[in-house]
Specification:
single chain, alpha+beta, 2 helices
């Protein structure tokens, strides 16, 4: 089973490298009157990381809220 997981990770990494190699074209991002040019693959990585950070923070906030609500129910 370990070899299966390793092969999945290797195939995923290969797909990411292939995607980055094929999407080297520059793209323009406009935000708050700023225009930034960067490769499309880099834009995708930045968006992914920002989404992971915000998603992880939201999940942690929800878990803490649920735990606090359960503690209040028990104390009542």
């Amino acid at each position: 089973m370990r070899w299966f997981y390793l092969s999945v990770v290797v195939l995923f990494a290969l797909a990411v490298v292939l995607f980055a190699a094929q999407n080297r074209d520059m793209t323009t991002i406009a935000f708050l009157r700023m225009d930034i040019q960067m490769p499309l693959a880099l834009v995708m990585v930045v968006v992914y990381v920002l989404g992971a950070l915000t998603g992880g923070s939201l999940l942690a906030l929800l878990i803490k809220s649920i735990q606090a609500a359960r503690r209040r129910e028990v104390s009542l």
